[in-house]
Every structure is written in C-alpha cells, then in structure tokens.
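In response to the reviewer comment on reproducibility (Comment 2.3), we provide here a single inverse folding case reported in full, input and output, so that an independent group could reproduce the run without further information from us. The structure tokens appear first.
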C-alpha cells in the first residue's frame, strides 16, 4: 500500500509541475517528474518522458521528442461518488495510441489492503487489457470472491471514467 501512496504523492507533484508548465509554456522533461511517477508510467509506456494535461483527468503521454505515445485517464472526478468497501477506489487507466487499454492501476484509497490485494492478485485489473473503451464498457467481469465490494467499486469506477472518454489522443 505504501508504494501506491508514494505513487499518488508523486502524481500530485507531477501534476503541479504540469500546471506550472502550462502557464509558462515550459515543456516538462523527464527530470520534472518524480522518479516514482515516471517509473510507474514506464511499466505501461517504456519510452515515456513526460505527461501533458489535455482535458479533465486526461493526460497525453509523450516520449523525449514530444511525440504522443498514449494517454493516461484518471477516474477521479468521474467516479468520486462510486464506493468500494471503504469509499472511492480511484484508478489510473493507461491506453496506447490505438485507444486500447494497456494497464489499469488502483491509486491511493481506503480499501482494506487484504481485500484489495485479493482483487489485484486475482488479475482482476487485467480484465480490460487490450480492449478499447467501447469494448471495456460492454464487458462484465465477475467480482473476486471475498472482495466483492472492492471488485464492483473498481469495475464501476472504470466504466464511469470510460463513459466520459471523448478522444484519448
């Protein structure tokens, strides 16, 4: 859970950097992202150098040359009213340049670690990998036994966010 909390803290710092960058026409570089954030992004996007806000909770992921290589969607604020067992379960959804989901990650939350780990270890988050937003919206995934509330919260959060996708890239 500490790793998730560190990632979320790093993401906040990165987003603050991006807000500054947009106001000053400054182009963020790899050095502007906390290493935890860049490392996390590079699991989905090995060539990621930085991200750039394109619309609410949507970030273009760019390589060092500035070419868009994918996007990252954050479920908040779209899913803030969706509860797992202990409240909202915010997500980060990475999509490739073809609009297919590469990775779904759970961000900092108040879910019971034991139940959330059941969901993660069961491969529940991988259920949407390789699907477009439209395909993922139509896919029903069975909840993980013993972690039903957490599973359902994640699935509903993912779908709430994907319903708001206009154009990822």
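Designed residues, in position order:
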């Amino acid at each position: 859970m500490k790793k998730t909390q560190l990632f979320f803290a790093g993401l906040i710092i990165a987003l603050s950097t991006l807000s500054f960058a947009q106001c000053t026409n400054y182009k963020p570089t790899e050095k502007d992202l906390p290493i935890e954030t860049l490392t996390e992004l590079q699991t989905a996007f090995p060539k990621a150098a930085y991200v750039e806000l394109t619309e609410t909770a949507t970030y273009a992921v760019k390589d060092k040359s500035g070419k868009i290589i994918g996007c990252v969607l954050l479920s908040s604020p779209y899913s803030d009213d969706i509860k797992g067992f202990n409240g909202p379960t915010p997500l980060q959804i990475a999509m490739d340049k073809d609009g297919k989901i590469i990775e779904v990650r759970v961000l900092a939350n108040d879910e019971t670690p034991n139940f959330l780990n059941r969901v993660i270890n069961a491969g529940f988050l991988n259920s949407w990998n390789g699907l477009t937003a439209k395909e993922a919206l139509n896919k029903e995934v069975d909840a993980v036994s013993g972690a039903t509330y957490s599973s359902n919260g994640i699935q509903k959060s993912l779908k709430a966010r994907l319903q708001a996708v206009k154009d990822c890239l």
